[in-house]
Amino acid sequence: MTDENDKQVETIAVHGGRTIDEETKAVNPPITMSTTFERREDGEYPQGYIYTRDNNPNRESLEGCINELEGGEGCAAFSSGTSAAMAVFQSLSTGDHILAPDDVYHGTEHQLDSIMNRWDIDTSYVDMTDKGAVEEEIREDTELFWIETPSNPLLKITDIKEISSLAHEFGCTVVVDNTWSTPVVQKPFDFGADLVIYSTTKYFGGHSDAMGGAAVTKKKDEFFESIRELQKHAGASPSPFDCWLIMRGIRTLPLRMKAHSENAMKVAHYLEDDPKVTDVYYPGLKDHPDHQIAKKQMSGYSGMLSFQVEGGKEKAFEVAANVDIFTRATSLGSVESLIEHRASIEGEDTETPEDLLRLSVGIENAKDLIQDLEQAIEKSYKN
Ligand SMILES: *Cc1c(COP(=O)(O)O)cnc(C)c1O
User: In the annotation, is 105 catalytic?
Assistant: First the structure.
């Protein structure tokens, strides 16, 4: 829970993990591009750094900053969101069972079904927005609940509080992949989650130029100790430069999230009114089926939205082909707006509708973005 005396998110984003360099008094941390650190004559390591896979000043300050933003007791930074998720799964034991959303990020599904299954870790996929359905899937050996909200690409909203208390009734650990929201928009610990993971490649970095991931824990427990061990010994350490870039991104994260949220809301309202658009998925819209839950657990609704168009896959491709300001690319969370035909990136067995386009709404002027979509749609349906 947030303490009245706690610093606010904008302040933490600017100052979290900041140390003045003792040598030069530089206000920004130097990038410590050294894999190894000198020992003293007595064999000790004066600053505690030994080898960069174990720890590095840039990684340590990034971890401090993310941890403070999240209000956790510990953070481990990784070289990608994927490796952060992997460390969570590898902290389970053979025979453990996972409950994950039926529309979980496709990369996570791949990890679970093609890699973790070899260690006899079984996953059941369930509609996490339906408590009854989730309850039915709980087994004797269920250890972990994986929540992703808003979900990808249909922006379904899971009630973190409701699902966390259900999980805890059965002694299970709750992990929230909070990549789409960031702690600026949603703080899963406030609603009972035990662990939060991120692809910092997305909003944290915010400029499509660095890969990273993070796992943040509410309590320093054995499970987190295992994640820390995997960070050091499974080898997915982030580079000092990537840590530095992500940290630099975080300094403007609250400002950017505000702009992403405001722009996405405007774009969603425009799309709602366009006759060629058959459905819009954005939790900020009042008629989104889970708007009330979103309102309760999010502040702002982030920059991700999806919509369906008339005319199936062909027209969806055409609309994406006709944009000028939006860029046709996967990924999300950067300053520039992206548009993506999601089904074709997810592969053959996807359940994503073929007429769906996903937007990562950037921080450009909303009017320009709307005009761009408007002209793209108009051009696509001209004949
Ligand atoms: C991108 C993404 C990931 C994976 O992160 P990488 O940094 O690409 O490895 C995991 N979860 C969600 C929700 C994502 O959007």
Answer: yes
Ligand 1 atom closest to the Cα of residue 82 is 9
- Given ligand 1 and candidates 179, 196, 331, which is best to mutate, with the most ligand atoms within 8 Å of its CB? 179
Q: Is residue 296 annotated as part of the catalytic site, yes or no?
A: no
Q: Is the C-beta atom of 178 inside 6 A of ligand 1?
A: no
**pLDDT single digits (tens) 319-355:** 999 999 999 999 999 999 999 999 998 888 888 999 9
Amino acid (one-letter) located at 365: N
The residue whose CB lies within 8 Å of the most ligand 1 atoms, and thus the one to mutate among 201, 203, 342, 358, is: 201
177 included as an active-site residue: yes
Would you call the peptide bond into 240 cis, given omega within 30 degrees of 0 as the criterion?
Answer: no
To 5 degrees, how large is the angle CA 65–CA 213–CA 259?
Answer: 65
Of 45, 26, 64, 69, whose CA–CA distance to 253 is shortest? Answer: 69
3-state secondary structure of 176: strand
Question: Which tens digit of pLDDT belongs to each residue from 108-149?
Answer: 999 999 999 999 999 999 999 999 999 999 999 999 999 999
C-beta of residue 303 within 8 angstroms of C-beta of residue 327:
no
Q: Which residues contact 196 (CB under 8 A, 6 or more apart)?
A: 70, 72, 175, 176, 177, 178, 183, 188, 189, 215, 216
SS (H, E, C) 261-273: HHHHHHHHHHHHH
Q: What spacing in Å lies between the alpha carbon of 3 and ligand 1's midpoint? A: 30
Give yes or no for residue 333 CB within 6 A of ligand 1: no
Looking up tokens 């993070």, which residue turns up? 214
Task: Give the Cα separation of 366 and 169 in Å (integer).
Answer: 45
Listed in sequence order, the residues at least 6 apart from 188 whose beta carbon sits closer than 8 Å to its beta carbon are 147, 160, 174, 176, 178, 196
Give the contacts of 184 (CB within 8 A, at least 6 positions apart): 9, 13, 69, 253, 254, 257, 258, 299, 300
The half-sphere exposure of 267 on its side-chain side, counting CA atoms within 13 A, is: 35
The type of residue at 229 is E
User: The dihedral of CA 294, 344, 214, 251: what is its sign?
Assistant: negative
Residue with tokens 């460390």: 87
Using a 6 Å cutoff on CB, does residue 111 contact ligand 1?
A: no
